[in-house]
Amino acid sequence: QSALTQPASVSGSPGQSITISCTGTSSDIGVYNYVSWYQQYPGKAPKLMIYEVSDRPSGVSNRFSGSKSGNTASLTISGLQAEDEADYYCCSYTSISDSYVFGTGTKVTVL
Amino acid sequence: EVPVVESGGGLVQPGGSLRLSCVVSGFTFSNYEANWVRQAPGKGLEWISYISSIGGTIYYADSVKGRFTISRDNTKNSLYLQMNSLRPEDTAIYYCVLNGGPGYFDPWGQGTLVTVSS
Fold it and tell me: Which terminus, N or C, of chain B has the lesser number of Cβ atoms within 10 Å?
């Protein structure tokens, strides 16, 4: 099972909005709404930011939002802040071997 | 209190074995499906194994199938990963993660580092 495809890096200035794409296939993102997003700071464990495509866990800022169209999911961070600088990973359930597949990861830089 | 704590990592020679453990607190562990996810140094996340809440259903990634065994003991709120025939490419931080709901991982442990090297 190949990893979902994400851009290696995305950057933006404070206050701007950025969007991270996550492209999969008709075996994962295209057929399941089990898409989640994780934020990871260097040396730390990942943290759940979005689940089931667009739902936010309690405590996660409403500046984070998720969506999906066809085989591609997206994470949008609005009102970019310095604390948003981190790595972000998407993840989807896949019918291939009843497993999960993560994205390649995107480094977000706040300019 | 940290809800998920892994242990058992360390340095092991290629071909060797290691058993990782994970203790969960603050949750009714038996209600949760659980997984192991790993991250090689400087690399991305890789899901490697899943076990259902009572252990009746188990899945593995192709990269570890036949070498790793996931198990759980709900009476001890614990998840395990027996790793055999270890290879240098198994070097990674191994995270114990619960399924907070269908298709997503929450919470995560802090991870335990496994290094496979001679």
Answer: N
